[in-house]
Amino acid sequence: MRINHLFPNPVCFSKLERPLTKQELKTVEKYKKETKNNMGNTISIPNYVLENKTLKNLKKDLNKKVIDYFNEVVCTSNSIIPYITQSWLTYTETDQFHHRHSHANSYVSGVFYISADKEVDKIKFYKPDHQEIELAVSKYNLFNATTWQYPVQTGDVLLFPAYLTHGVEKKKGTNIRITLSFNVFFKGKIGNNKKLTELVIE
Length: 202
Description:
This protein is α+β, with helices and mostly antiparallel strands. It has two helices and twelve strands, in the order βαββαβββββββββ. It has helices at about 20-30, 55-75; strands at about 10-15, 35, 40-45, 80-90, 100, 110-115, 120-125, 145-150, 155-160, 165-170, 175-190, 200.
């Protein structure tokens, strides 16, 4: 039997090809003092952290990953420029979690793992469609699973459709998991003039 993957959801993994500088790490540590309680962990109160001038090179590096995603996954003929909109830091300690959620008003979601241990840290995704019939599963695969977890580690960069629901289960291990999350949208002209679907986004 041949099984084809039809209409899959892309979850793209890559690596930041460099360690963070001392100044970048200092900025991340500074934001840890400017947090509020989130649903299960803590989140930075500033939510445009990549606009901090000390993180400008990190923003450029992450934006290159975004361009790669659009070139390899989206493959549009529309003249658009993707860009990072909001960005924020989350800090997750032992027994904390990150609630199940998706990102509205965003086309792509991104997560950069500043500090994570692949032995204990994971991200969990949830199948988008509702299951009308639920059968007991003897062996999980990409077709019958309603959730899927990936291990993550320091330096990982994940990009995926913003509608894809995700979260983090209760954290194991003693390390503090630090992530920089960001939303991506685009500027330019989309749709088709002759089909009356054209839209200019400035």
